[in-house]
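Form 12-C: Joint structure prediction
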Amino acid sequence: MASLKLIGARPSPYVNRVQFALNLKSLDYEFLVEKFGTKSELLLKSNPVHKKIPVLIHDDKPICESLIIVEYIDEIWTSGPPLLPSDPYDRALARFWAAYIDDKWAPLLRELRTAQEEEEKKRVLDQMFQVLIQLEGAYRQCSKGKAFFGGDNVGYLDIALGGFLGWMKVAEKLIGVRLLDEAKTPALVGWAERFCSHDALKDAVPTAEELLEFAQKHFMAKPPTPN
Amino acid sequence: MEEVKLLGTWSSPFSYRVLWALELKGIPYQYTEEDLYNKSPFLVKCNPVHKKIPVLVHGGKPICESMVILEYLDGPWPHNPLLPSDPYERAVARFWAKFADDKGTVIWTMFRSTGEEQKEAVKGSLEMLRTIEDLALGDKKFFGGERIGMVDLAFGALAHWLGVFEEIVGIRLLEPESFPRLHKWTKNFKEEPAIKENLPDKDKMLSNFRCLREKLLASP
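Section 2 - Result
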């Protein structure tokens, strides 16, 4: 009985966040794939305000906004390690940095994709490195020496940033610059490797190949010339 | 009991979100007015990432971002909760709080712009108000139900700052005939003692924001 449905698409970092949470809680769900460029009746009905994915539908009730969905999942399915920290101050830190990721990191990734000139690309990249250095600090502060932002277990903030790991690898392929760099952000490099090899998460992180194909199909002006 | 400090400014709706929450919960706090043109070393130490107000400092530990602070408060002070207890209702509340944050800036754009940009912002503001009127409030007294909650505080700027902006730019958005529910909500919200007794003086706001608009329009 599928009382859990997720409206989304694998290339979306925001959809991936929800998939990570569902996998970590070992929840079965029906994945209703939205085709890029169109919006299904169900999506429009479930998210009339924003008309965006992801939407989680639980017993016919829609929940929208990726991080809100993650909190909802954590509050309903309480067996296993919690996704949000139990201490209120640590929760506030996690929420602060998740908001930072959405406000500062996500727009830069989008800007990088659409940047035309080299000058512009360099400017965006410089800002991205500044943000990553902040996130390196956040990781050290929140992890308290453990494997993930959430400590021993993957948590809310890991999920918030983890959604972008697939696209970060694609950006590296497309522009030839490594975003997660041992020299600049060594702790995050280690974190990313652990995140991507985690049993519950590895299949939910889209591969660079599938994202590259998606990008080429939808975002690039000309198709690549075959060798 | 650990000490609570609030760093804020008298004219910021974000600062007031937190101040109202502290008042609603009856939490004693020490308020410090920050000069944003001359930020205190303490503010910069508490919020090195954004260097912005409001900042709540609880037992020496800083929490930044108004909505993060509001979510925090129910933890150590669970009475008069700002969020509902039901997980689905909480998700709905968080949705509208995020909407207030993400979309609310269009009103600021209307205030600080002219010409085409302002026209677009007016259009965007009306769409935002329409969404809130039709989908967010229902027939409840407050977004939080019978009591003021996190979403009411998130939309607080609409109850007091919007009127000031409307007067300065000479554009009326929140007409009672077009937005009866929202209009009634602004009245109910401002009647609550914790809010009524904690609102920045309207004349002071008009003077301050008029100056600010001139300054913003003059600079490139």
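Section 3 - Comments
Chain A has nine helices and four strands. Residues 88-114 of chain A form the longest helix (27 residues).
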